[in-house]
Design a protein that fits this description.
346 residues; alpha/beta; 434 Repressor (Amino-terminal Domain); Rossmann fold; 3 domains; six-stranded parallel beta sheet; 11 helices; elongated
């Protein structure tokens, strides 16, 4: 056995170092240390050899916590102001209930790591694991919890480099490309605006990539003047589209980063005397319940929001129970045709 290449920058070895050197998961190292589940003799020998070679010493608090179970899972969320969160919470609750777990929710308008106690009221002291939505926790806190062997599952966010933390997300790029190509091929739209989500949001970044791919595939330029932030928010999207119209920006279609943005965009278009879809086709993303009740009914990319919540809960329960979890759960999306794009209208 040999030490990993590269100079060590930390003075104290972590559980991740042990797992890497032994060629096993952090959960396996935790099983060996805490004797919470059987491990093959050969595997245990490799882990103990790595512990000795690295002079690894578990933190007493982590060892104490390892023996405690709360049967409770924590969920870190932004402010619950969007229709997106109702099916997400329903899916998470369903997945946890079947395994006998309760849920504590911490929702804030700020990143959770900015709050007192870094995790706010949630953490190792009162939960067996955490579900983390997008940027509710910074990379440093994620790395710290992971290195202590604390179970984590990320929703719509890639784990920090080098960390094997499960992630659950949607097929954002392919779904967006399918929608934009529908506007180009079926409705002959060639000036298509894009309303992005919040800065740094991975779902939004992948949707922007799908938008750009669709334009490129059909020989259309990607005009930066047609890309604005809708913030996954109806008010912000309304302001962005109103500003385009006031500045004389021309467009014949609009892909909104989510259905809330699409609703705000449609209102701004109507207030400016534009007809949807005759003057401007509009497509959203998510297919939340109100999408079919908009006027006109919204063509949108259906994302399996409830299924994502359930999958995330199931992955976290598997980690808590010292079972293997999937590195990536990528759920498919589909284009739902209604009238806002121009289909089904006289």
């Amino acid at each position: 056995m040999h030490t990993p290449a590269g100079k060590r920058t930390r003075s104290r070895a972590t559980i991740s170092d042990v797992a890497r050197l032994a060629g096993v998961s952090i959960a396996t190292v935790s099983r060996v240390l805490n004797e919470t589940a059987p491990v093959a003799e050969e595997t245990e020998a490799r882990v103990r050899e790595a512990i000795a070679e690295l002079s690894y010493k578990p933190q007493p608090a982590a060892q104490t916590l390892a023996g405690l179970k709360t049967n409770t899972v924590g969920l870190l969320l932004p402010e619950l102001s969007s229709a997106f969160f109702t099916p997400l919470l329903r899916g998470i609750e369903s997945g946890l209930r079947e395994s006998g777990f309760d849920m504590l929710i911490y929702a804030t308008t700020h990143a959770a790591s900015d709050e007192a106690g870094r995790l706010g009221p949630l953490g190792e002291h009162n939960t067996d694991g955490l579900l983390v939505f997008t940027n509710r926790l910074d990379d440093g806190d994620i790395r710290r919890l992971h290195e202590h062997g604390f179970p984590l599952v990320l929703l719509h966010r890639t784990p920090p480099a080098g960390l094997d933390i499960p992630c659950v997300t949607f097929e954002n790029k392919a779904g967006t490309r399918r929608a934009v190509e529908h506007l180009i091929q079926v409705h002959q739209r060639c000036r298509i605006g894009f309303l992005a989500g919040p800065d740094g949001n991975e779902d939004s970044n992948w949707r922007l990539a799908g938008y750009r791919e669709a334009l490129q595939a059909h020989g259309l330029p990607c005009d930066s003047a047609l890309i604005a932030s809708g913030g996954f928010d109806d008010v912000q999207a309304h302001q962005a589209v109103a500003r385009w119209l006031a500045e004389g920006v021309t467009f014949d279609a609009l892909f909104a980063g989510d259905d809330d943005s699409a609703a705000g965009a449609i209102l701004a278009l109507r207030q400016a005397g534009k007809r949807v879809p005759e003057d401007v086709s509009v497509i959203g993303f998510d297919d939340v319940p109100f999408a079919s009740y908009l006027q006109p009914p919204l063509t949108t990319v259906r994302a399996p929001i409830e299924e994502a919540g359930r999958a995330a809960a199931e992955q976290l329960v598997r980690l808590i129970q010292n079972d293997n979890a999937d590195a990536l759960t990528l759920l498919p999306t589909e284009l739902v045709i209604r009238q806002s794009c121009g289909c089904g209208t006289p």
